[in-house]
Amino acid sequence: MSTEVRQMFSSIATRYDVTNEVLSLGIHRLWRRSAVKLSGAKEGSHVLDCATGTGDLALAFKRKVGSTGRVVGTDFCPEMLESAPAKAAKAGLEVEFQVQDAMALTLPDNSFDVASISFGIRNVDDPVKCLQEMARVVRPGGRVVVLEFGQPTGPYGALFRFYSKTVMPAIGGLLTGNRAAYQYLPRTAAAFPAGDRFLSLMDQAGAYSERAAHPLLFGTAYVYVGTVR
To answer: Is 49 annotated as a binding residue?
Structure first.
């Protein structure tokens, strides 16, 4: 799956930010702020952001940790990272960007206070291995933060599913020229474990002394926070 996902993101990379802004109506910005707040990151913290894409969450963390902190953004798709350094420079923020596989990070043990991944863990071949690898590079007592889509229920859930299956592919295809990518993204979000089921994956990782799920917008997304053993 990794090769197919990399090719898909490569094909939409140049239009990813614009499309994301349109499809989420800007709500993704609020969700990132929630993830940063729940991470416990503070001035001087060292943060790793996996599957950073064009770097939005990494930049949000850098604003939080300040000049004395360090933020490294990684992604396994070089094309997604291409615009990230310029975006950071325009914002006056110093962030390191590296091509890395979140399941096989070439980074030392216990080297970060926080590791995060937003809307990326459902695209890795082995989410449990990813959770273990992220925990490996975080010091004991530090946190791993996962921002990912959920599956809302009730009338709102029905509306969200209609939007995801019908509106997202149409608009995403129009803006990027790759309708299939915006059929894949909501399909994988609908199938990926959410809520307590994702917490079970964190338990399987065997790397966390505590874990919690924080729903956003009626369960449209979740911020999962695990404290590393």
So the answer is: no
C-alpha 18/C-alpha 57 separation (Å) is 16
pLDDT score for 115: 99
Q: Is 75 annotated as a binding residue?
A: yes
Cα–Cα distance measured from residue 29 to residue 212, given in angstroms and rounded to the nearest whole number: 21
pLDDT digits (tens, 9 = 90+) for 118-176: 999 999 999 999 999 999 999 999 999 999 999 999 999 999 999 999 999 999 999 99
User: Helix, strand, or coil here: 57?
Assistant: helix
Note down the domain range covering 23. 2-152+192-228
- Looking at residue 1, its pLDDT comes to 63
- What is the identity of the amino acid at 39? S
Q: Are 51 and 101 in contact (CB under 8 A)?
A: no
Bridge partner list, 70: 46
**Is 106 labelled as part of a ligand binding site?**
no
pTM score: 0.96
Number of structural domains the chain divides into: 1
Specify the CATH number for the domain of residue 51: 3.40.50.150
102 annotated binding-site participant = yes
